[in-house]
Amino acid sequence: MASERQTKAVGYVHLATVCGADGSAQIQRHKDTIVAYCRDSRISLTHMIVDIGGRQGRGRALDLLVMERAAVLVVPSLAQLARKTAELAPMLAHYFSAPSGVAGLIAVADSIDTRTPQGRIAIDVVCCVARFETGSIYHA
Fold it and tell me: CATH for 7-134?
């Protein structure tokens, strides 16, 4: 009998600052959210990257996807990836949208999974909103 191959994932958590025990508890809640989602979805969580303050770890997480060490990035929410839609949209388009996307993205709280048609549409909507916000809407 052939064994079922699990999807490999990297988890990513970002927190702007840590203020005492509440900040540490918030990080742990985010990590627990990712771990529980992966366990329930039978996804193998191979890496967990936590950023506090900056977003250097986000680059490492994306590199793991490009190097095919993981096939999916799991975040508690899209807000973990970027503060502004204008920053988020190019990343979504480059890494997680067809045809050039290199991996899947799961935003647990947002119920987005780009491996599904609904998740791909949600990412397309975010990218359209970003174009609208920056005034770079194209006309047919």
Answer: 3.40.50.1390
